[in-house]
Design brief:
Elements lengths: L3 E4 L4 H11 L3 E4 L5 H6 L6 E5 L9 E4 L2 E5 L4 H5 L2 H6 L1 H8 L4 H6 L2 H6 L8 H6 L3 E6 L3 E6 L4 E3 L2 E2 L6 E8 L5 E7 L10 E10 L2 E10 L6 E2 L1 H7 L6 H14 L10 H20 L1
Parallel strand pairs: 1-3, 2-3
Antiparallel strand pairs: 4-5, 5-10, 6-7, 6-10, 8-9, 11-12, 12-13, 13-14
Length: about 280
């Protein structure tokens, strides 16, 4: 028999107290774009739904110098509609344009998209390539900041500590790099990515420098493709370089076979999306 309870904390401290008390039984509820499908599919049983949707201080985009801090309750629509991010963080802004449909973008939050820890989370590859840091807090451990690469533990699993809540994300602005986010799904709208790629780089004297490449849906977690980055760094962006880097990428990814695609097909997508991203970034 399924059993759900519900509470709506009046402030951050109360929310952290509830998360500490209920531990693994507590489930964060905000935009609920991931939570509701799980509830309908009966993947969650005997849990406490903790509604944090109206907690103050966890929503909005703030700029300080060349850095941005984005609250975890900020919606994808707010990110995609931000002139600041369009100019200063275009890689994340691009990803938000292809995220679900307008109804989902108006509900889904950045913290929820990351905290759900789906390998296909659209915001994860851009934030990895942007070397984002995560600010989280728990009642027992206080606040801590850590690289976003340390957040993901596996499909549906994070490395957040017991009772810990994501407060915000922090990343640099206005890096003046060539960037592109590309993804491939089985249909144009509302498609979970079969594969996605986020690429950023600088061109100096005709050579690619400071290359950052992150993939989604091509391993158990979103990840940085460091070997492929090395293959691109210091090289001209020509067909020979991209073919060689694509081969490296196909060996670096660790995709699975599921109902949507085979692992071999996803390996091919890794190379194809890299070439597409490079051409889009430099166009």
């Amino acid at each position: 028999m399924l059993h759900y309870s519900f509470c709506k904390p009046r402030g951050l401290i109360e929310a952290l107290q509830v998360l500490s008390e209920y531990g693994g039984r507590a489930r964060i509820a905000a935009g609920c774009s991931n939570l509701l499908p799980d509830l309908k599919a009966r993947h969650l049983q005997d849990c406490l739904l903790v509604d944090i949707s109206e907690l103050e201080g966890l929503r909005g985009i703030q700029a300080e110098g060349n850095w941005a801090t984005v609250g975890s309750l900020t919606t994808i629509a707010e990110l995609g509609g931000s002139p600041l991010l369009r100019e200063g963080a275009p890689l994340l802004w691009q990803a938000c344009q292809s995220f679900g449909d307008p109804l989902v973008r108006n509900r889904a939050t950045l913290g929820g998209n990351l905290g759900h820890a789906s390998p296909a989370a659209d915001t994860a590859p851009p934030l990895l390539a942007m070397e984002t840091s995560v600010l989280a807090e728990s009642l027992s451990g206080g606040r801590r900041e850590f690289p976003i690469a340390e957040l993901f533990a596996g499909p549906g699993r994070t490395n957040l500590r017991p009772g810990e809540l994501i407060l915000s994300l922090r990343f640099p602005l206005f890096e003046r790099k060539k960037v592109a986010f590309v993804k491939f799904g089985l249909r144009n709208a509302m498609a979970i990515s079969l594969a996605s790629a986020a690429l950023s780089l600088r061109m100096e004297d005709g050579l690619m420098q400071d290359v950052k490449l992150a993939y989604g849906s091509l391993a158990a977690t979103p990840f940085r493709a460091f070997r492929t980055e090395e293959c691109l760094t210091g090289m001209p962006c020509n067909e020979e370089t991209l073919v060689r880097a694509s081969t490296e990428a196909q060996g670096e990814v660790r995709p699975i076979t599921d109902i949507r695609a085979s692992s071999s097909y996803r390996r091919l997508l890794a190379g194809a999306l890299l070439r597409q991203a490079a051409r889009a970034a430099l166009s």
